[in-house]
Specification:
The protein is built from 19 helices and 19 strands. By secondary structure, the protein is an alpha+beta fold. It folds into three domains: about 1-160, Rna Polymerase Sigma Factor, Chain: A (Orthogonal Bundle); about 190-360, no CATH class; about 435-635, Jelly Rolls (Sandwich). Helix 3 (about 85-105) crosses helix 4 (about 110-130).
Length: about 625
């Protein structure tokens, strides 16, 4: 099938045309969907249809780098010169997501295409008039789809909208306001949406792509002109910025009383620290103020299910269903870091795989044996670190990680005016994966009774217990390559409560490890170096070692764990495996940020191997950053 585009020879202004359906406006050219494969008549106003493969000779401008430009750069080209190439590239990037959301608002694919086209045209017109997005195109376009659908609701095209969407709009009082006005009022009432739109567009963009679209870091990096590690750092700052913006919006809301404004700044800390850390005055206020309790609920949802609640708060309609469609798309990505980031104007065009591989389908139905653990006493002589020559490390290549196919996206539920109450703040964002934790059935939390108060750590009150070097369930720490100096709490891998660790250095994203439970394992050369600066003469090098675990007779295992890794300097994190106490084999290396993520690594078991040991090593670190782990599982 030949695809056609429209080109105006006399002007580069945006041209629109009316379709056979009254009132449906589509941008001519790259927005038109020629379902017959051929245009029969020239478009009005001097616009001609030409085959796509000939457009290079018809369109002015250099296409050499167009696919490597960021959305902001493409927007600038459109504003300055009406670049047709820029609009084509913007349309190519966002069309699939736009039609996907439009499909949730409409009854069939044809209507979804029309709805998406009209929304995209309205966005281009807004940009040309000096408004509209600069870089945060995706959330802007999705909002345009919903607003356009609400506008259709008052016309003869209402019958083309999804029944659930009609029912949502019918919640309003038609005698008081029309559908379009009601939708705008719902937008104004959403504090999450107001907070999100108050952020700069770079923060909006990175939050949307990482949390809602769930794009790999490499893809987001190319879209924004960053490195993958830069994406992680920017996303972490943006999440904190959104929390602060939410509290500001809560305090400035017209419904806020003087007492609400007074306590609003404390709500974020209340959500993070828990009720036992709140003052009596704040607890009394929350007991009597439903509005502030609602704010606590929303902040809790943002903490525990960030992407889902951001989508719900910004889109208003069908946020969870849209998130499910994007989760399915994200599962088709080739890897977590889809290629190198764009350097300057270099790099390759953005692409996405079209279907799951046969290997992924096979993995989805394979039943993996659950590995049993060999019991061990962490305090026995054989489990204590022994100084000596380190085990040799040999490269280890396993089959590439293959994502399981995502479930079919459910049809959008009918939204309700009040979101459901969230799970308690202690709940984690995702269900625990299958398998037995290596740190016994209760994870690292099993050693609560061994926690000690601060020793050298001056930022934590000595009355607060929160760290230990005694690990449960057969785990041990190899500090044979660690110097003897530095802050005692952080000499090598340490078990610590999240609260204790976060207090050591507020504002350094330790609090963003939402996947970590109460007690986590931490290697923190940054804090270790705070006493006497040991990094002047030596480096941090410590290895967390699991108990030896029985393996099935051959086959493949999956190692999964929650990780929160911040890279700096020559610091390097390594995940290693050893079979039958043999040489260490490198499974994964960290040399870039990996914040608040769940890793899943394939482990191929050699024939005849009877036990496997997993090791997490942080080495070559001076006064650098940290690595935190929790919920390690082998299945």
């Amino acid at each position: 099938m030949i695809e056609y585009v429209s080109v105006r020879h006399t002007s580069r202004e945006l041209i629109t045309e009316r379709s056979q359906s009254p009132g449906v406006t589509r941008a001519s050219g790259w927005l038109r969907q020629h379902r017959s494969g051929r245009a029969t008549e020239p478009s009005p106003g001097g616009v001609q249809d030409v085959p796509l493969h000939r457009r290079a000779s018809a369109l002015a401008g250099d296409m050499t780098h167009i696919q490597e430009l960021t959305d902001s750069e493409l927007t600038a080209r459109w504003r300055e010169s009406g670049s047709q190439e820029a609009t084509e590239e913007l349309h190519r990037r966002h069309h699939r997501a736009l039609v996907g959301y439009a499909r949730l608002c409409s009854r069939d694919e044809h209507t979804a295409e029309d709805l998406a086209s009209e929304a995209f045209t309205s966005a281009l017109e807004a940009v040309r008039s000096g408004h509209g997005p600069h870089g945060a195109w995706r959330p802007y376009l999705l909002t345009a789809v919903r607003r356009t659908a609400a506008r259709w609701f008052t016309t003869e095209r209402r019958h083309r909208l999804a029944l659930d969407f009609e029912q949502w709009l019918d919640e309003r009082d038609p005698a008081v306001e029309d559908a379009e006005t009601w939708v705008v009022r719902q937008e104004e009432r959403s504090l999450v949406r107001r907070a999100f739109l108050s952020l700069n567009e770079r923060w909006q963009t990175v939050l949307w792509y990482t949390a809602v679209e769930q794009e790999p870091a490499g893809v987001t990096a190319r879209l924004m002109g960053l490195t993958p590690s830069g994406v992680a750092s920017l996303a972490s700052r943006a999440r904190e910025g959104l929390r602060e913006a939410y509290l500001t919006a809560h305090a400035q809301d017209a419904r806020a009383g003087e007492e609400c404004r007074h306590f609003s700044a404390l709500l974020g800390a209340y959500v993070r620290r828990g009720e036992h850390k709140a003052g009596r005055a704040l607890q009394r206020h929350l007991g009597s103020c439903a509005r502030c309790r609602g704010a606590v609920d929303e902040l809790t949802r943002l903490n525990d299910r960030f992407g889902a609640y951001l989508a719900t708060g910004v889109l208003l309609w069908a946020g969870p269903a849209y998130l499910a469609t994007r989760s399915a798309s994200a599962s088709l990505a080739a890897s977590a870091d889809a290629g190198p980031a764009r350097a300057g104007k270099g790099g390759s065009p953005l692409t996405r795989p079209a279907a799951l591989t046969a290997g992924a389908a096979a993995l989805a139905v394979a039943a993996l044996a659950v590995v049993s653990l060999l019991p061990g006493d962490p305090d026995t002589e054989e489990n204590r670190p022994v100084r000596g020559r380190p085990s040799p490390t040999v490269p280890y290549t396993s089959a590439p990680d293959t994502p399981a196919p995502a479930a079919t996206a459910p049809s959008p539920p009918r939204p309700v005016s009040t979101p459901p109450r969230p799970a308690p703040a202690t709940a984690r964002p995702s269900a625990a994966p299958a398998g037995v934790p290596l740190a016994a059935c209760t994870g690292f939390d099993a050693d609560d009774g061994e926690l000690k108060p601060a020793a050298d750590e001056h930022d934590v009150p000595r009355s607060v217990p929160g760290w230990t070097h005694s690990f449960p369930g057969g785990w041990r720490v190899d500090n044979s390559r660690m110097p003897d100096n530095g802050v005692r709490e952080w000499r090598g891998w340490t078990l610590t409560t999240r609260d204790f660790w976060e207090r050591t250095a507020p504002g350094q994203y330790r609090e963003d490890f939402s996947l970590g439970r109460r007690v986590i394992a931490v290697a923190d050369p940054d804090e270790w170096n705070d006493l006497g600066e040991p990094s002047r003469t030596s480096t941090f090098d410590s290895t967390l070692v699991s108990p030896a675990c029985a393996t099935p007779p051959g086959g493949r295992l999956t190692l999964s764990y929650a990780t929160h890794y911040w890279q700096l300097g020559a610091q390097r994190g390594e995940v290693l495996v050893s079979f039958d106490s043999g040489p260490d084999r490198l499974l994964k290396a960290y040399a870039a940020d990996r914040f608040d993520s769940r890793e899943s690594l394939a482990v191929t078991v050699p024939r005849g191997a009877r036990t496997v040991t997993v090791k997490f090593r942080l080495r070559d670190a001076r006064n650098d950053w940290y690595w935190a782990l929790d919920d390690v599982r082998l299945s």
